[in-house]
Amino acid sequence: MSINNIQDEIIEEFSIFDDWMDKYAYIIELGNKLQPIDERQKSEQNLIKGCQSRVWIDARYENGVVIFDAESDAVIVKGIVVLLLSVMNNQTPDSILSSELYFIDRIGLSQHLSPTRSNGLLSMIKQMRLYAMAFKAKYENN
After folding, report:
1. For the segment 84-122, what is each residue's pLDDT rounded down to a tens digit?
2. Could you report the per-residue pLDDT of 52-93, keeping only the tens digit for each?
3. How far is CA 64 from the centre of its chain?
4. Contact 68, 128 (CB under 8 A)
5. Which residues are catalytic?
6. CA dist., res. 122 & res. 106, Å (int)
7. How many structural domains does the chain have?
8. Does the residue 142 lie in any domain?
C-alpha cells in the first residue's frame, strides 16, 4: 500500500474522534501495541537526538524496502512511533524520501504536541529519511 493510502486511512481513523482527549487515548492504545525491540538495538547510535523521551529507531533494507524497528520509553511517543512506522515501514527508499507526511497536520497532531515533542517528532522523521537515503545510496545507485 502506498504511503498516501496509509496516511488517508490514518486520517479516516482519527476522524471518528471529536475531541483531543479521545485522540490521545487512541494514540496511547496504539502505543501499547508496539512490540519491544531487541536490547542490542537500544544503542546510542539508534537513540534519537532532540527527543524529550528516549526513542530508538533502527532500520534494515530487505527486498527493496526499508524495515524499521522502534521503541520509546514514553507512552504517547510510542503511539506516535506506531503511526510513523505504519506509514513508512515496508516502503522503498524513494517513496520515503519523496513523501509528504500530511497526516500529522490533518489529524491535528502537530497543533497538540508540546514544542519539545514536536522537535522529537521531526527528529524521528529526519532519522527515518536518513536511513532511506543511506539505503538508496548503498543499494540502489549501483
Report:
1. 999 999 999 999 999 999 999 999 998 998 888 889 999
2. 789 999 999 999 999 999 999 999 999 999 999 999 999 999
3. 19
4. yes
5. 51
6. 16
7. 1
8. no
